Amino acid sequence: MYPEPSIPLLPNTFPESAFCSAYQQCLALEAVASGLKAPTHCPPPIICAHLLGHLLHLAPDGNG
Which of 3, 18, 19, 43 has the smallest number of CB atoms closer than 10 Å to its CB? Predict the structure, then answer.
């Protein structure tokens, strides 16, 4: 149902901020995702980690 994740998250290069903390949580989820089971109506944890992490990189930094 869901495609295999193909692009792992990059190392956390955010300066100390809410973005840094959020991205760190995505990295932590990515690290343990293979051992987690999600309900059948939810995407796999690895998909969630990758989606949220990549979106954080695409989000504006608040400076313009």
Answer: 3
Whole-angstrom Cα distance, residue 5 to residue 13? 21
Model confidence pLDDT, tens digit, residues 11-62? 999 999 999 999 999 999 999 998 998 888 888 899 999 999 999 988 887 6
Looking at the chain, list the stretches that DSSP marks H as alpha helix, in order from N- to C-terminal side.
Answer: 18-32, 45-58
Q: Output the CA torsion sign for 60, 61, 62, 64.
A: negative
User: pTM of the prediction?
Assistant: 0.83
What is the rounded CA–CA span in Å between residue 45 and residue 9? 13
> Which amino acid is residue 41, in one-letter code?
H
